[in-house]
Fold this sequence. Notes:
The chain is an alpha/beta fold. The chain contains 6 helices and 14 strands. It starts with 9 loop residues before the first strand and ends with a strand.
Amino acid sequence: MSDKSGGSIAKIEFHAPYHPNVKLRIFDKYFSIDGACSNRFDKYIHWLTHFHFDHIRSSVAGGADFLLKQNENIIIFAPDDRTPISDYSTVFDVHKTLYQYHSKGKRLLIPVREGEKIYINNTVVEAVSLKHSVQNNAIFIKNESADFTAMVTGDWLGSDEENREAIISRNPSILISECRYFRDENYDLTCERMHTHVNDLVALSELLPDTVIIPYHISRTFSNLDYIKDIFDKHGFVFGKKILFYEDIKSYEITEAY
Ligand SMILES: [Zn+2]
Ligand SMILES: [Zn+2]
């Protein structure tokens, strides 16, 4: 397999510690989760975890539509969220229209049901339902030439038993998980808002000893990154802007820190 990154088999890139966008490369296949669209639709899979604005804004606003030919479209997989928002429309429908309008019909939302598996780009992607305040599809990725798997959670209620089981049963090699709050006194608030606390991730890590855990999408209220880095270091979590993975998935390298 040829690649330009010195033998790496996977790469993970974040926009910022607070931002929900995750870019993932496995060999020569790319995934953009809750991020801007690429015009390389032959290489890229675009995925929305859920319809909260911080997760959709990059793909609604930015786009490479102008680089597309007449008959080409960018497909974005999105939750089949049929929650009614009026007598006439659902959450999915209103967003489908929004994307069509802003891209002049070039960006198409494709509904993905909870639990659905899609075979695309030599890869099986599975929509794993993780409970949040709205329907949220984590993405579980297995490329057929790779002996490792990756999962990106989106936003999820970290204290929920079924959510935990959905992750543990898949035993991902790499888990990229939301990690919103850190202080013990914020635990109840985290649950109320249906997010994930670092204590939830610590508990999960004990049940997933072989998984590389990469927290992301932390609360903007934590502007002191050193405080957060110390906590992550203590628990063996990986925190960086760009991370490369090699043959042994545990031999990763942070090539750009935050
Ligand atoms: Zn979010
Ligand atoms: Zn959310």
